[in-house]
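Q: Given only this backbone (161 positions), what sequence would you predict?
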């Protein structure tokens, strides 16, 4: 793996860690102020919500890693696409798990529809958009030749002799 690939992998790891931390934080604040749980359906297993967040985080990590492997030509569209993919991964993972828990596909579709406009799902997509936008900006700065050397302070420079 060359230097560019290592940098892209490192950015993807830190972006995924930032994403999961921010989404859990935002979900906690929304739950605190709105007084509602993340999933309002009763009888769901204890792993449903963590797996939904894990699926969204995996989507963010994988897509930033893929974009970082090449040169991002449309950074804004890439960030929007990652936000939409994280939103869909969050919802689809929940719907699939709920379908397996209940044993009926229609209940999974109703789960998907009832959570599609929840503040938690929207926060996941918006957070993915912001985090991936920052990660793509870092990748663009690096590919343009910036940040290839460590920073130098003005007092580190030696006067010409």
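A: Predicted residues:
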């Amino acid at each position: 793996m060359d230097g560019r690939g290592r940098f892209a992998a490192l950015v993807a790891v830190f972006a995924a860690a930032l994403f999961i931390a921010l989404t859990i934080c935002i979900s906690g604040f929304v739950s605190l102020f709105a007084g509602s749980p993340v999933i309002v359906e009763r009888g769901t297993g204890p792993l449903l919500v963590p797996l939904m967040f894990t699926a969204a985080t995996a989507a963010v990590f994988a897509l930033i890693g893929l974009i970082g492997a090449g040169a991002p030509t449309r950074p804004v569209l890439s960030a929007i696409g990652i936000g939409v993919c994280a939103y869909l991964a969050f919802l689809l993972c929940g719907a699939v798990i709920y379908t397996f828990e209940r044993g009926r596909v229609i209940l999974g579709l109703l789960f998907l529809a009832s959570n599609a406009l929840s503040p938690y799902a929207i926060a996941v997509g918006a957070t993915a958009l912001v985090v991936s936008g920052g990660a793509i900006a870092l990748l663009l700065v690096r590919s343009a030749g910036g940040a290839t050397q460590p920073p130098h302070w003005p007092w580190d420079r030696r006067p010409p002799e």
